[in-house]
Design a protein that fits this description.
mainly alpha; Growth Hormone, Chain: A; globular
Length: 466
């Protein structure tokens, strides 16, 4: 395993020195490439799939919404179970690889069924089964993959670097699935099947390329732990909620997701109705993601200098300032909104990146305290915060702007209704990001504290060998 590493150069316990890179960058790129199909599948499932299945295959929107809601509820229970089972898996191939391979088979098969459907086979049952299988396969890939990413290095800053690779790969994949439908809309706007197939090609193509690269990138490290414990589904949720450090990270991620989802859910309404620039509605969202590709490396450098939790706080406060800046945009004038969109792209994902890097450190602290390695279980909790945050954002923001008088079906909205839309669009995310910053401010698991935890784990793990 030593051949995979370069010079050590670890930072000291002051937490101010950036360590030299240890893990080979090409291997890290191959390892992180498996994030591409997962990210590429997420946005189209929520944005394009419901409309295409409703228009092309004549399924009712109410039924499609019920299927998506049922999956969200099922995923809230299934994802922690996948994490707990992966942590307790013991095979000669490792703990993570078997789950990733099995998940890839399910995910790939279901993706083919969902994006290349035979019209005569499409029914609500067909869509529901394929959608559930896609999300199950996605969880079986992403949760062990993220857990593995937290295990290939125990170095504080190196974990940030690993998550940065995930972030960049994900941003590129999202950009690809945003650009393709936009191009098809310009060339052949009536061909929904072509749009569906193009997205499917991106997802399946990236899966076939990335899977062998990830499996061959790094060996799975052996993690000495106490004897495995059988934990019921309810017990896994209790474990997640009981750990105070994990609870702070998850609540912060929940707040981040609420802010991001509120903005995403209202941006088309805001640009179209408040700004009076409907021709910019889709373009601005795409523009934001173009600059989002460089966000990960920028925030990684900030994290190296000031530490993860401080970088997370800084990123969230930048988001607060950007969203408050929306209060000063002038209808019909794109200048300031364009500047804020670029800033949003550069700042986006800063909190997500740092929080996911922090969870591996929290799992180390938990293992030192309990003797149990629950890295995958801890990473699975992000699906809970993401799904809950999305549901709260949509469930609060849309009814709130309607209560304030905004109606997207109306020919014209009153000035009061449009101001209500502005206040919710700007202040909702600003408040959510401010709460996220407050939750991780003063986070006690610093680089110095984590170095002590890693040394204690190394000393304890060495005892049986002696």
């Amino acid at each position: 395993m030593a051949t995979l590493y370069r010079s050590q150069g670890l930072a000291d316990d002051t937490g101010h020195a950036r360590p030299k890179s240890q893990l080979n960058g090409w291997r890290l790129a191959g390892f992180a490439s498996l994030s591409a199909p997962i990210y590429a599948a997420q946005l189209p499932l929520a944005v394009h799939l419901p409309a295409i299945y409703a228009q092309q295959f004549h399924l009712s929107l109410g039924l499609i919404g019920a299927i998506f809601l049922a999956e969200r509820l099922w995923g809230a229970f299934a994802d922690p179970l996948v994490g707990a089972l992966s942590d307790n898996t013991r095979t000669r191939f490792g703990r993570r690889r078997p789950w990733i391979v099995a998940g890839a088979v399910i995910f790939g098969t279901a993706t083919a069924a969902l994006y290349f459907p035979a019209a005569q086979l499409v029914t609500p049952l067909y869509m529901g089964a394929a959608l559930f299988a896609v999300y199950l396969g996605s969880s079986m890939i992403s949760i062990p993959h993220l857990a593995w990413s937290g295990e290939i290095s125990g170095a504080y800053h190196e974990r940030t670097r690993i998550q940065t690779f995930h972030s960049v790969v994900g941003a590129v994949a999202l950009l690809a699935v945003l650009i393709l439908p936009t191009i098809i809309d310009q060339l052949n706007p009536a061909n929904a099947s072509l749009k569906l197939a193009a997205i499917g090609v991106v997802v399946l193509g990236s899966l076939f390329i990335a899977l062998p690269l990830t499996l061959r990138s790094f060996p799975e490290p052996a993690i000495p732990t106490a004897p495995r414990q059988r934990v019921a589904l309810g017990g896994t949720v209790t474990i997640l909620l009981r750990d105070p450090l994990l609870r702070r990270v998850l609540l912060s991620d929940f707040a981040v997701t609420v802010g991001q989802s509120t903005r995403a859910g209202l941006i088309v309404f805001f640009v179209t109705f408040y700004m009076g620039l409907p021709q910019w509605a889709s373009g601005l969202y795409l523009f934001q993601f173009i600059f989002g590709v460089v966000a990960g490396p920028i925030w990684a450098q900030i994290g190296y200098r000031i530490g993860k939790h401080k970088a997370a706080v800084a990123g969230e406060l930048v988001q607060v300032a950007i969203n408050l800046g929306l209060l000063f945009v002038v209808p019909g004038q794109i200048g300031l909104l364009l500047v804020l969109t670029v800033a949003q792209g550069v700042a986006q994902g800063s909190g997500n990146l740092m929080l996911r890097s922090m969870v591996a450190d929290v799992a180390d602290a938990h293992r030192l305290r309990t003797g149990q390695d629950r890295t995958a279980l801890f990473f699975s909790a992000f699906s809970l915060s993401a799904k809950a945050g999305t549901a709260v954002a949509v469930g609060v923001a849309l009814p709130l702007v309607a209560w304030l008088g905004f109606d997207p079906k109306a020919v014209t909205n009153s000035p009061e209704a449009l101001r209500g839309l502005l206040w919710v669009f700007a202040l909702g995310p600003a408040i959510a990001h401010l709460i996220s910053a407050a939750l991780v401010h003063g986070f006690p698991l610093t680089q110095a504290r984590h170095a002590h935890i890693r040394r204690a784990l190394a000393d304890r793990d060495a005892v049986p060998a002696e």
